[in-house]
Automatic annotation (TrEMBL):
It comes from the Bacteria. This is HD-GYP domain-containing protein. Gene3D superfamilies: Hypothetical protein af1432. It comes from Litoribacillus peritrichatus. CDD domains: HDc. Residues 359-421 form the VHS domain.
Length: 425
């Protein structure tokens, strides 16, 4: 399990920061071959970018630079307090905590060294949306930790891992930061390397051993559908809190409250720890009740159209997968895809939305707004599962595999048909 830690993209972020902040070489910057690139004290800015990118450095970038105003734990705690002032609905979850001040105070105990302080500073300045995502994940992790009475030492590891969990993304090309894009199998594998990248950076520091492992596992799921190791139920409670919370916050930021609630309810006992999921549902409910913003109202016509597109895609997918022949059909990537599509069909059938009864079930709910919302949640969750199963298929697919044309056609048609089918956006 290795990933090449490519500093080129991250170096671009660092030199961009040097245009507005004081960034200097903390020591002589030398290439792996011993070539002097910049002397100690030299300014790091865009003028230096090409020179620094022409060579592999002897050390990681963050170990040889000084950012004059690098963030520390006290400053991040202040940012957390400002976040709650700007979004008071997030503070609503404090009402039922055992220690209402615990989530914000935890930011003051972040375990940061020069490398992590630099990385967080670059992230805040160059990728503010990623930094705010990390803040929200960390805050929500601490709310869950309080509700589950996680020991303080584990909570401190957890909040530090939550703040650092996605910083590996800054080492990937800009093209991988478009969450609406559809990626090739190779691109999916590159994106899936971001936990490994941050793990490898932190694994060099003995004090970060536990935190590095939490970051490595923040996309693992209890049912083995996660990455990078596809672990099955072998992660610690802090890791399970980070995994479920990161997923919930990502979905919440992109698709809103109702959709996130549906994902959590559906996967309590599969991908996530059910006790963690219940805590997250409690937190999200409090945010929603305190918020003045509501998801886009659903109506029968919207839900009916969504179901028709989903049903067509799932039915044709199951048919296409059943026609595949060995050895391709017996590959782990295809087997997983078959299982996921079959599970989606079962889930839909359980609520009367199978191919035969779906239209009738929908008509029976046309005058019941609450039922329409519930069915809309089920349909949206199924769409989420279709996309998730395709992402995992692309990630698991062997680089030299030749995908049959009929499956390629189904993948493209499904992604084109369903990519804009999220109610409430």
């Amino acid at each position: 399990m290795n990933a090449v830690v490519n500093d080129d993209q991250y170096m671009t972020h660092v030199t961009d920061l040097g245009e507005s902040e004081v960034v200097t070489a903390s020591e002589d910057i030398v290439s792996e071959k011993g070539v002097m690139l910049l002397p100690k004290g030299a300014a790091i800015n865009k003028k230096m970018l090409s020179k620094l990118q022409q060579h592999s450095l002897d050390q990681q970038v963050d170990q040889v630079i000084t950012i004059e105003d690098a963030l520390d734990s006290a400053q991040i705690m202040e940012i957390g307090q400002l976040l709650l002032k700007e979004h008071p609905e997030f503070a609503a979850s404090q009402a039922f905590l055992f220690d209402r001040t615990m989530p914000i105070r935890s930011f003051g105990r972040l375990r940061l060294n020069t490398t992590t302080r630099n990385k967080l500073t670059v992230c805040k300045n160059q990728k503010p949306e990623l930094f705010e995502h990390s803040m929200l994940v960390a805050y929500c992790c601490m709310c869950v930790a309080d509700l589950m009475k996680v020991p303080l030492i584990d909570a401190d590891d957890l909040i530090t891992a939550a703040m650092l969990h996605d910083l590996g993304m800054m080492h990937l090309s800009k093209e991988f930061h478009d969450h609406s894009a559809i990626y090739t199998p190779e691109q999916e594998r590159q994106i899936a390397s971001h936990p490994i990248i941050m793990y490898q950076i932190l694994a060099k520091f003995p004090e970060y051993t536990t935190i590095a492992n939490l970051i490595l596992e923040h996309h693992e799921h209890l049912d083995g559908s996660g990455y990078p190791k596809a672990l099955v139920g072998k992660t610690s409670l802090p890791s399970q809190i980070l995994s479920a919370t990161e997923c919930a916050i990502s979905v919440f930021q992109k698709h809103g409250y109702n959709y996130t609630l549906s994902v959590l309810k559906t996967h309590m006992a599969e991908q996530f720890n059910d006790k963690v999921s219940k805590c997250l549902i409690k937190i999200l409910n409090s945010w929603h009740e305190a918020s003045s913003e509501f998801d886009f109202p659903r109506n029968y016509d919207d839900v009916e159209l969504l179901y028709e597109k989903l049903n067509t895609s799932v039915t044709s997918g199951a048919k296409t997968l059943s026609t595949l022949t060995n050895p391709f059909a017996s590959s782990s990537a295809v087997i997983h895809l078959k299982q996921r599509i079959s599970a989606i069909q079962v889930s839909l059938a359980n609520v009367g939305l199978d191919k035969l009864r779906g239209a009738t079930t929908l008509k029976m709910t046309s005058d019941d707004d609450d039922l329409i919302i519930e069915i809309g949640d089920v349909i949206q969750d199924s769409i989420f599962q279709v996309f998730d199963s395709i992402r995992i298929f692309r990630r698991q697919l062997h680089p030299e595999s030749k995908v049959p044309s009929e499956l390629t056609a189904w993948l493209k048609q499904t992604e084109d048909t369903l990519k804009d089918c999220f109610l409430g956006e």
